[in-house]
Amino acid sequence: MVYEDLTTYTEVDTANVWSETTTRCTGTNVRRDSDSYVYKSYGANHFGDFEHLLDVCVTGVPTDHGYLGMWSLSTAPESLVDLPAGSLVVEMQYVNTGDSRMYLRIWGGATDTWSGFVVGTTYYLRIKRATTAFTCKIYNTAANRDANGATGLIDTLSLTSGTTLFEYVQCGFGGKVADAYAAKTQSGYSENLDLQEAVEAVPASSSIVPIMHGVGMFAVPHKHKFPSFNSRFPKIIPRGLI
Hints:
- By secondary structure, this protein is an all-beta fold.
- It folds into two domains: 6-195, Sandwich (Jelly Rolls); 206-236, no CATH class.
- It has one helix and 18 strands.
- It has one helix at 142-147; strands at residues 10-12, 18-20, 24-31, 37-41, 50-60, 68-74, 88-96, 99-106, 111-115, 122-130, 133-139, 153-160, 168-173, 185-194, 197-199, 206-213, 220-227, 236-238.
- The strands form four sheets. A seven-stranded antiparallel sheet has the order 1-4-13-6-7-8-9, with no helix packed on it.
- The protein is globular and about 45 Å long.
């Protein structure tokens, strides 16, 4: 596993409700109308097909209508209601007693929902897009999630997305929902975000080949490095897709 260093993420948070350690992004008493988000840019058009791993937990809820954004991909970082149309979202809402929901959402479009998360319980997610198939598998343990099988699979949320390429990943955000429940607060965290992208290193070995520059008595030998037979240029490989 190669977890994101969340201390390198940018926090937009005037109410100081978010905090980050190396691997955990925590929201504490995040209001439903909170205009706040924690994000990182990976450069334009970075995320096409992907498979991200993430652990999520809601630790505190109001009597009803709490909201907490756990993960998103977008072309601009924002709170929920200001995200560009087509952004991909995972969120958790405590609606009321006996009605707690995890949403897979395409902002401005469709949603799929799993009901029944337990406050204080960690859930292990495998979030994936392959062309237009956008899914989130919810597991009961990290080991079962990593095995990617049927064991421990609680539910699979599934939507059909567009093929927009995204720049920004978010590990926490508020809803900015201005309704009758705007002051309701919810707490929780996302943790151990693994984008499953690995950089293949260029081998240090290379061949030294002398080349003569110039002609006749003025010819001067120069040493030029050429890549060895087995070397490769650095490239990004989505580990979860091979």
